[in-house]
Amino acid sequence: MLIGGKKEKVIANMKSAAERGDLNCKVETDDPVLSHEEREKLIRHYLDNYKTFGYRFCNVCARALTDTATRWLNRDTRIEGLENIKEIHGGAIVTSNHFSPLDNTAVRKAMNRAGYRRLFIVSQETNLAMKGWVGFLMNHEDIIPLVNHSEYLRNYFGPMIRERLKHGDAILIYPEQEMWFHYRKPRPPKRGAYYYAAVNHVPVISCFVEIRDLPGKENEEFHKTRYVMHILNPIYPDPDKSARENSQEMMRQDYRQKAAAYEQAYGETLTYDFKTSDIAGWIPSQEST
Q1: Tens digit of pLDDT for each residue in 166-192?
Q2: What is the mean pLDDT of the chain?
Q3: Cα distance between residue 216 and residue 281, in whole Å
Q4: Angle, in degrees to the nearest 10, between helices 103-113 and 53-73
Q5: 2 pLDDT exceeds 80?
Q6: Angle at Cα 146 formed by Cα 142 and Cα 152, nearest 5°?
Q7: pLDDT tens digit string along 244-285?
Q8: How far apart are alpha carbons 139 and 113 in whole angstroms?
Q9: Which residues contact 243 (CB under 8 A, 6 or more apart)?
Q10: In whole angstroms, how far apart are CA 12 and each of 7, 62, 97, 120, 250?
Q11: Which of the pair, 144 or 130, is modelled with greater confidence?
Q12: Burial 206-224 (b: 16+ CB within 10 A, else e)
């Protein structure tokens, strides 16, 4: 299942970004563009609503919808490596490659299999402005909004992360930051996910989603695909190192693991030279080739 309209311009943006080495930039063309005031209003509404009865009721409904969608969308998803995290029983930060608005459902299925009842997802606050059923889920599912503002990070975001980890939940943080649609390759991570694992003394559950093409067409631009979720070795902070040292080393280790998983899954060395097969299932038009 694909979300969104035609992706030719998005893929052109990815190609251009890969060629200039800008692997964490925004490439989507239809994401909400908000003023500072609109962002402030969105996050204030979320914080005011977060602990109300109405939110809790909608949260139960949103989780039920997400659980149903997860089972349906991942009925053919294979999970490998669950044995790697069998010793993890408490809160953890989960990292994975980000290539679809729905890729978190594959992570959710894997974490459910690992024994986690809930998966919280860190999401940019602009996603709270989405409309329709996606907007409902963004505002009422287990979302932790990310706002790049020091006061918010210190007074709200950090405490929300700490609360969920103490509760024993898994929190998905996409270290690549921006979504690159159906892009197979793991991209270099940013440090935030590993910092929050380090300061809260919890492991990182390192994941890589392999995307396999199927014969049938999803639409005129894409073949159908299915996922193989690879759960890699967990990464633990070193109690003798500072949060900064730990976050840097954990970040490097996670990238090494994801790169190795990519190379094993696809049988090729990881480089960022762009080619058509980098986009899973893509059927390029004459103008794109």
Answers
A1: 999 999 999 999 999 999 999 999 999
A2: 94
A3: 10
A4: 90
A5: no
A6: 115
A7: 999 999 999 999 999 999 999 999 999 999 999 999 999 987
A8: 26
A9: 195, 198, 199, 237
A10: 9, 34, 20, 32, 32
A11: 144
A12: bbbbbbbeeeeeeeebbeb
Single-letter amino acid code for the residue at 163 = E
pLDDT at 289: 52
Residue length, the chain? 289
Whole-angstrom distance, CA of residue 201 vs CA of residue 250: 12
pTM: predicted TM-score of the whole model, two decimal places: 0.94
Q: Can you tell me whether residue 5 is helix, strand or coil?
A: coil
CB contact set of 106 (below 8 Å; sequence gap of 6+): 74, 77, 96, 209, 227, 229
Q: What DSSP element (H or E) covers 157?
A: none
Phi, psi of 186 (to 5 degrees): -70, 135
Please return the burial class of 10, using the count of CB atoms within 10 Å of its CB with bins 0-12, 13-18 and 19+. buried
* Strand order, beta sheet including 223-231: 78-80, 223-231, 204-217, 92-95, 170-172, 119-124, 143-146
Closest CA to 112 of 84, 82, 72: 82
Q: What is the pLDDT of residue 286?
A: 61
